[in-house]
Every structure is written in structure tokens, then in C-alpha cells.
Design a protein that fits this description.
alpha/beta; 4-stranded parallel sheet; two-stranded antiparallel sheet; globular
Length: 191
């Protein structure tokens, strides 16, 4: 499976090849996680269990190696500590149809064992696959924690780009075509 790092490398090529199309890449939600940890720490002061603002970023290796993520972290480095944790097994297990069950739990428990309660303030799900197993991740952790993923920011950016080109519709018929490295999905939809 290709990670976000691969997508970002291809974006300039895709934008050149399809200049009329709107191409939006997903970005790990590091900034919202950082702002959340900062807000909690400021509100609770020195008594905050989140005062260290350690944010765990779960992602594929290609995303974690990507320049875009590192530029984002560099811009925010004085506001938190970022732990980059490659989790290629999540994608593999999901794509094998093993997203829920003993094998996924075993993998996640091993991966997350170094992060007991209070050691991190939140988790950024830095891969489009990971929100599908958010409950499995929380179960493996053994405690509740805030999760952040890039879906909301991507939706906002997509709406902004559509509005710029006067293509944003709230009602009526539309056609949606989604491209992926794995499949093509087209839907004719009304409302």
C-alpha cells in the first residue's frame, strides 16, 4: 500500500497532468493534536497529566519519512514533542481482511506497549487506513485518548477548492469519481 508520502511526491505531477482537476492530499492532523494538547496543558497548568504534550503519530513508514510531515513538525516543534511510530502492520492486516480480531490486537498491543496511560496526550492517525481500526487501537491501549486524523481538514480544503472554482453544490445531482492506487469508484448521486 502507498502512504501519504507517495501521494505528496505525485501531487505536482498529477496537478501538471490534470490542471483543471482539484487534487487534494491528506495531511496527518498534527496541528489539531498540538493545539489540543496545548489547550489542555494551559487550562490544567502544572497539574496537567498532558503537560509534556507528547503526541504519538502512527503512520506508514513512507509518510513518516516524508518531507511534508517533517516540515509540519518543524513548524510546531516548540509546542510539543512528537513520537513517530511506523505501523505498517495495520495496513497489511486491514488489506488482508484481518482488521478486527486476535491478530490485529496482538500486533497493536505489541506496538503500543511502550505507551502506558499518561505517557502521551493524543494519537494522530497518519494513514487513511487507520481510522478504520481506531476502536481496536484504543482497545489495545487499554485507556481512552483523543485521536486526530486528517479527514476533517481534507474535507474543508476540498470544499474550499470547489468553492474557488464555483463547483461547490449543496443540493442537486452530482457525479463523484474517486481514484485510488487500488480501485476506481464512480457514483451518480442525488443529494
Amino acid at each position: 500500500s502507498r502512504g501519504l508520502g507517495d501521494v505528496y511526491k505525485r501531487q505536482p505531477f498529477l496537478r501538471e497532468k490534470y490542471p483543471e482537476d482539484i487534487i487534494v492530499g491528506m495531511e496527518p492532523a498534527v496541528k489539531p493534536a498540538t493545539l489540543f494538547a496545548q489547550e489542555i496543558a494551559e487550562r490544567e497548568g502544572e497539574h496537567s497529566c498532558l503537560s509534556e504534550k507528547k503526541i504519538l503519530i502512527l503512520a506508514t513508514e513512507s509518510t513518516l519519512k516524508g518531507n511534508r510531515l517533517h516540515h509540519l513538525i518543524d513548524r510546531l516543534k516548540d509546542k510539543g514533542e512528537y513520537i513517530l511510530l511506523p505501523a505498517p502492520g495495520i495496513v497489511r492486516l486491514l488489506e488482508e481482511g484481518k482488521g478486527f480480531g486476535v491478530e490485529m490486537q496482538s500486533y497493536l498491543k505489541g506496538l503500543l506497549k511502550p505507551y502506558p496511560k499518561g505517557s502521551i496526550s493524543s494519537i494522530v492517525l497518519g494513514c487513511t487506513h487507520f481510522p478504520f481500526v481506531k476502536k481496536e487501537i484504543e482497545k489495545a491501549l487499554g485507556y481512552s485518548i483523543p485521536f486526530f486524523d486528517g479527514a476533517e481538514g481534507t474535507a474543508r480544503e476540498t470544499a474550499h477548492r470547489l468553492a474557488e472554482k464555483n463547483l461547490l453544490r449543496k443540493t442537486g445531482e452530482s457525479k463523484l469519481t474517486l481514484y485510488s492506487s487500488c480501485l476506481l469508484y464512480t457514483s451518480d448521486a442525488a443529494d
